[in-house]
Amino acid sequence: MLELLQNAFLNIKSPAILFFILGFFASIIKSDLKIPESIAKILSIYLMMAIGFRGGVEIEHSGLSPGLLSSIGITIFVGILIPLISFIILKKVNKLDTINAGAIAAHYGSVSVITFVTAVTFLEREIVIYDGFMVGMMALMESPAIFISLLLVAYLTKKKSASTQFHINEVIRESLFNGSVILLFGSMLIGFTTGEQGYEITEHFFVSPFQGILTLFLLEMGMLAGKRIDEFREVGISLGLFGLLMPIFNGILGAILATAIGLTVGSVTLFAVLTASASYIAAPAAVRLALPSANPSYYITMSLAITFPFNIVFGIPLYYSIAGFLQNIM
């Protein structure tokens, strides 16, 4: 417990997290501080390029680890399992209708790239080694939950018309070929292809400025999360608790599975972060397309204003402590 509190305190003291809190506070007090949307998009593109490229270089440097195939297997497994569990809880415990339950389940089964990037920064600060292929697991986990959740909604609402089939096809295409997936996989492939030579050429672009750009991006994310607090009344206490407790459950599940296949503490931490995070980029785009009647005040507020802040401030050190504990007992 003491180690967990120390890690949480160190995480909060990092510049990136403090700037997130500053952005959050600025929104709460209705400050006119803002970052243009075009700049925020450029920052997001940079972060995905950098993390994908560096992951590809790591894979090329270390080779295809024996844990890679096992990691792919459990990634697909949890990508299917988590939205199913989330959907059942939202229907039975939170008493949500099928459409909103499916929309939220899609978000909690998918992943947050920025939470993953923040976790990578945390591990590098703690000098903890992790497998480069975890970047691929992040990209791989982004889509299955969206498929499962939307197919569940279509089945349970008995929407078997041609128009529903069209929507599902569009969602599948959007999930497989959305910008974040293409950018992550593409950057990882480029990093793998160019290897150490490519790393040396781009080090001053992808490595040196990384922390500063992440800090600027988290400032903007803090402001965005703060703006969603006004919608907290619509979410309600029960959904608010879901947004806090479900990530912990998912993170523990991910940590247990990753430890069971023999991943290191660093990789277990990143896998736990992936399973614990909630999407606020890919999933909202797919849900808006397929489930236009779902309430965005539910799924966006929960993922962005509740789960995201919890994970980057408290969740990451919690999952790191869980990973270390599991390594000692398993």
Rg, alpha carbons: 19 Å
Give me the CATH architecture, please: Up-down Bundle
| Helical amount | over 70%
Say what the CATH topology is.
Na+/H+ antiporter like fold
Structure overview:
With 330 residues, this protein is mainly α. It is 82% helix and 0% strand. It contains 15 helices and no strands. The protein has helices at 2-13, 15-28, 37-62, 67-92, 98-109, 113-125, 134-141, 144-156, 162-177, 179-206, 210-228, 232-260, 265-276, 282-290, 296-329. α3 (37-62) packs across α11. The radius of gyration is 19 Å and the shape is globular.
Keyword list:
330 residues; mainly alpha; Na+/H+ antiporter like fold; 82% helix
What are the SSEs and their pairings?
Layout: H1 2-13, H2 15-28, H3 37-62, H4 67-92, H5 98-109, H6 113-125, H7 134-141, H8 144-156, H9 162-177, H10 179-206, H11 210-228, H12 232-260, H13 265-276, H14 282-290, H15 296-329
The gist of it:
The chain is built from 15 helices and no strands. The protein has helices at 2-13, 15-28, 37-62, 67-92, 98-109, 113-125, 134-141, 144-156, 162-177, 179-206, 210-228, 232-260, 265-276, 282-290, 296-329. Helix 3 crosses helix 11 (210-228) and helix 11 (210-228) packs across helix 15.
